[in-house]
From TrEMBL:
Highest taxon of source: Eukaryota
Annotated keywords: Membrane, Repeat, Secreted, Signal, Transmembrane, Transmembrane helix
Main location: secreted
One Pfam family hit: Stress-antifung
A GO cellular component annotation in the UniProt record: extracellular region
Membership in a protein family: Belongs to the cysteine-rich repeat secretory protein family.
Domain Gnk2-homologous: 39-142, 147-251
InterPro entries, A to Z: CRR_secretory_protein (IPR050581), GNK2 (IPR002902), GNK2_sf (IPR038408)
PROSITE patterns: GNK2
Localisation per UniProt entry: Secreted
Protein name, as recorded: Gnk2-homologous domain-containing protein
Keyword Repeat attached: yes
């Protein structure tokens, strides 16, 4: 899942090697700070059924997608729209990472819509995760709710030898949650000493979760996927309502909530 690349240099043909070395440095920096918008995972939700071409459901879904795409929700990184009748409901929720607003959010939304169309064609319910956003379509209202079914953990195969790993990470995560609930995007990113290494962490809750609900969501993910992330050099735990990530290298463009958190 996580790869680092390096390059060796010598002092022959300096003009060419300076250019190459500079390019490699820039590539490494962009990669480590996660400026790309890589696909992470998706789930098609067959229990919610499929819609037929030209159906009411398809028409309303397209209206919502067009409305979100032309709206101003990308400036604050969150949009949720729905249309319904007595018997049917169509909802779309787009949540962008707290440091990926504006044009990045708009671009991620377009990418995610295309990704869902390709991976879950005509499914009424589906979710897809990218580095910079999470997109969900659903046949029921998900606002303010912790969804416990649509979740996944991706972890580094390499392990990190740190005494009391779980206790230290959970303490760090709890402090990140405390910072996030004070942030209007429910987002926090920071770093801390973890044994002899520096650990970088990030978490975010969907903008319709608040205070205790946000903390409960992150705590649920941490407990459910403990066997996946415990002792690893890096991991992402992705839910539709919240997510968190940690690595041994910086992966967001800034630590908005302040660096060097002590645990």
């Amino acid at each position: 899942m996580h790869f680092l690349s390096g390059a060796s240099t010598c002092f022959v043909w300096i003009p060419i090697l300076v250019v190459v070395a500079t390019q490699m440095l820039l590539i490494g920096t962009v990669s480590s700070l996660n400026m790309t918008n890589a696909y992470l995972n998706h789930k098609c939700l067959p229990k919610q059924g499929k819609y037929k071409p030209g159906s009411w459901h398809e028409r309303q879904l397209e209206k919502i997608i067009e409305s979100i795409a032309s709206g101003d929700g990308f400036t604050h990184g969150y949009d949720m729209m729905s249309l319904s009748t007595d018997s049917e409901y169509v909802g779309v929720t787009n949540q962008c990472r707290g440091d990926s607003l504006g044009s990045k959010c708009r671009s991620c939304f377009a990418t995610a819509i295309a990704g869902l169309r390709r991976r879950c064609p005509r499914y009424k319910g589906a979710i897809i995760w990218y580095d910079q956003c999470t997109l969900e379509i659903s046949t029921f209202d998900t606002q303010g709710k912790i969804e416990k079914d649509n979740e996944v953990c991706l972890s580094n195969a390499k392990k990190m030898k740190v005494d009391s790993f779980i206790e230290k990470w959970m303490t760090f995560l709890e402090k990140l949650v405390g910072l996030a609930i004070e942030d209007k995007y429910l987002y926090a990113a920071s770093d801390t000493r973890f044994g002899t290494k520096k650990l970088y962490g990030m978490m975010q809750c969907r903008n319709d979760l608040y205070n205790n609900t946000c903390g409960k969501c992150v705590g649920h993910l941490a407990v459910k996927f403990q066997d996946c992330w415990n002792g690893k050099q890096g991991a992402r735990v992705l839910g539709s309502s919240c997510n968190f990530r940690f690595e041994l290298y910086p992966f967001v463009s800034s630590t908005k909530s302040g660096p060097n958190m002590k645990i």
